Amino acid sequence: MRLLIVATLVTIILAIISLFIGVSDVSLGALLSSSAEDRPMQVLLISRIPRTLAIILAGASMAIAGLVMQMIVRNRFVEPSTAGTTESASLGFLVVTIFAPGWPLMAKMLVAALFALGGTALFLRILRAVPLRDVLLVPLVGIMLGGIIGAVTTFFAYRFELMASMLAWTMGDFSGVLRGRYELLWIGLFCAVLAYIAADRFTVAGMGRDFTTNLGLNYQRVMVLGLVIVSLVSAVVLVSVGSIPFLGLIVPNLVSLMVGDNMRRTVPWVAVMGAGFVLACDILGRVIRAPYEIPISVVVGVIGSAIFLVLLLRTRRHAA
Amino acid sequence: MKHITRTPAIVAALLAGAFSLTAMTASAQDKVIIHAQGETTISGVPAKVLTSDWAAFDNLHALGVPVAGVPASNAPGYLKDFVAADAIQIGSLFEPDFEGIAASEADLYIVGARSRDAYGTAKDILPTVDMSIDNSAIIAGVQGNITKYGEIFGLEDKAAELNATLDAKIAEVKAAAEGKGTALVLVTNAGNVGVYGPDSRVAWIHNELAIPSVMENVDDGDHGGDTVSFEFILERNPDWLFVVDRDAGVGSEGAAASLLDNELVNQTSAAKQGHIVYLDPQAAYITMHGYSGIMLLLDQVLAGLKA
């Protein structure tokens, strides 16, 4: 518990740093000496606070989506981007962009979420047909499924000359976040809270269908709830900022190493560390090449894969 | 008398013979074309021409040269109607269909920019030239290419005419831009904004039209430019914004316009004065090395500056 408070404090400090990093001059002094009409205050309200909130919401909810997914699939190497969920959401967003470009963002997001739901359900259906539930086979199946869905998406994007747009969507990037352009991410927070409330059920479901049914829980319903949470979060994050690779993989795994697998205990950890990790990466992305930015998906990709490798090698050494 | 009447006839016959002889040597004469990847020899005026580059198509169309084979995709909107109905399609911009090219028995094949890597394979199949040009000197490159096409197809006068029109247009836009302040070229893409600098494919706005950039030493990539935040645009505060909307495939300029219509960009002097010019995205991004593409862009810049 004390450790969790420390982690939360670190995340809050990162959030404060995030508020003061950017092209415009927004220092504490400038803020205190300026009125609400001046530029520092304007930039803070229009750009910095929304961006920091978007990072926290996206980071926390993506990490939790990864955790929920790992529980319901019972595999540590699964997360939305290794199960075809993100790719399905992209396909949905592409379809709605081609056929109904004028729809409001909320409607587009819902279509993306429905596709994500369908893609994830298909993944689970395929898993049931895979005879060997090898630990590495499951994410491989997911990555292959994602590859197929991604290929379909690429085909249509190519046909409709939307390749560059597709690339930019799937590339996570907070540079476009402003007041009025990130609010969908609050849905992610709602899903995270839902995951916390249902945490015990997911923990039980993580033990398997028979075990769950024996405890008097409706296994199917828990699975559907998990799928809806994962799909909604993936769609919301994809539509608002793009996909953030590895996040749902690294954070839950790190947390699991530290505090175990009881989801009621791990959800707050995963949320705080997800937010903190993305905050740190986005700050880096803004600082390295200032005044230009390096997209979050690139920074997370580089740092995330390094952390993941360390995790893999360490667990192997412990096992040996 | 016979003598006298016959002499002019003989002279005439000789002359005619000499003429036909020179005409024959001219048609059979080999021309050496120096281009971006070496030298290519062609004999006579090529009748059947293929290209994997829309800019090359653009230039040939401007000269009035029919093109028998074009890329299968990405025809810019402003060129679509000029592609012959019976033109054969020779693969994508990046990967030409070499079998189709070999089967076509064409006289000349032109590659450029995206298709330049095809040169190595294509040159062994049929006479091939690479008309790629450097983005840092687009106008000179386009004019150089037009001159070269003029020589290849014996249309030197038409080429000179096109180049003169282009020069005049540049001078006109340059005059209109003088003293109008600084500019920033943006590319918008699915909610993100990238900036373009002096070595990019839209650098001609700064280099050729002498509109100063608000940035110094931009280290930009050739593609989407460097990602920036809206704060960046606000702080650099350009007098003009030239926007390339990469989302335009979906339709209209709505995507970029609504993206840039926000509380930060609206505070820049460009936005306040209505100085946001949307450039034809295909001309600015895909075929900026073609005559009518560059003329289209120059007209758009001019219309924006005068508005």
Automatic annotation (TrEMBL), chain A:
Q: Which Pfam families match?
A: FecCD
What Gene3D superfamilies does the record point to? ABC transporter involved in vitamin B12 uptake, BtuC
Its subcellular locations are:
Cell membrane
Q: How does it sit in the membrane?
A: Multi-pass membrane protein
Q: Which domain of life is it from?
A: Bacteria
The regions listed as transmembrane in this protein's record are 53-73, 109-127, 136-160, 180-199, 219-238, 244-260, 267-288, 294-313
User: In which broad location class does this protein mainly occur, judging by the first location in its UniProt entry?
Assistant: membrane
Keyword annotations from UniProtKB, A to Z: Cell membrane, Membrane, Transmembrane, Transmembrane helix, Transport
What InterPro entries does this protein map onto?
ABC_BtuC-like, ABC_transptr_permease_BtuC
Family the UniProt entry places it in: Belongs to the binding-protein-dependent transport system permease family. FecCD subfamily.
Q: What protein does this entry describe?
A: Iron ABC transporter permease
Where does this protein come from, organism-wise? Devosia yakushimensis
Automatic annotation (TrEMBL), chain B:
Q: Read off the InterPro entries from this record.
A: ABC_transptr_periplasmic_BD (IPR002491), Bact_iron-sidero_bind (IPR051313), FatB (IPR033870)
Q: Where in the cell is it found?
A: Cell envelope
Keyword vocabulary terms for this entry: Ion transport, Iron, Iron transport, Signal, Transport
Q: Which Gene3D superfamilies did the record assign?
A: Nitrogenase molybdenum iron protein domain (3.40.50.1980)
- PROSITE patterns for the chain: FE_B12_PBP (PS50983)
Residues annotated as domain Fe/B12 periplasmic-binding: 48-307
Which stretch is the leader sequence? 1-28
- Coarsely, its chief localization is other
Regarding protein family, the annotation reads: Belongs to the bacterial solute-binding protein 8 family.
Protein name (Swiss-Prot/TrEMBL): ABC transporter substrate-binding protein
